Amino acid sequence: MKTSARNQLHGTVHALHDGAVNTEVIVDLGGGQQLVAIVTKDSAHQLGLTAGRKVFALIKASWPILVEGAMPKTSARNTLCGEVKTVHTGAVNTEVVLQLAGGAELVVMITTGSERKLDLKPGDPACALIKANLVILGVEE
């Protein structure tokens, strides 16, 4: 599958929690990191989501909020932490690649002004905050 989303994280469904309309899906990414997605109950059913099912999560690079340092307390359901791998500075936006604990990489686009303020360098600890309703889940058929 090809997609314009820069981030395609692979994992295994750890647990599902049904609500009246939506289902909370907890995905194990490896390395002790989990990703929470909120999808409709109908979508969870159509995808055949059950504990142990392999899934992929799509996250556009512009959706996460980048935080310098160790894991902060936040209302965002997803806090994926790792180490800055690369910083590619542009005139308006900067691409930051985080190496996550499980080995996956997460690309985050921030403004170049924010990059100057954070002053991130390769090897620095950083976290990406991602709202659960911004995570798109898919399965291979």
Can you give a write-up of this model?
With 141 residues, the protein is mostly beta strands. The protein is 10% helix and 53% strand. It has a five-stranded antiparallel β-sheet. A hairpin with a 2-residue loop joins strand 2 and strand 3. The radius of gyration is 15 Å and the shape is elongated. The relative contact order is 0.26. The mean pLDDT is 94.
Report the sheet with the most strands, covering strand number, pairing sense and barrel closure: 5 strands, antiparallel
- Give the SSE string: EEEHEEEEEHEE
Low-pLDDT regions: none
Helix content: under 10%
**Strand content bin:** over 45%
Distance between the termini: 11 Å
Helical segment tally?
2
- The oligomeric state is single chain
Structural class, from helix and strand content? mainly beta
How confident is the prediction overall: mean pLDDT?
94
Number of strands: 10
Gyration radius, rounded: 15 Å
Strand order of the largest sheet: 3-2-1-4-10
Shape descriptor reads elongated
List the main descriptive attributes of the protein structure presented here.
five-stranded antiparallel β-sheet; mainly beta; single chain; about 140 residues; about 10% helix; 2 helices
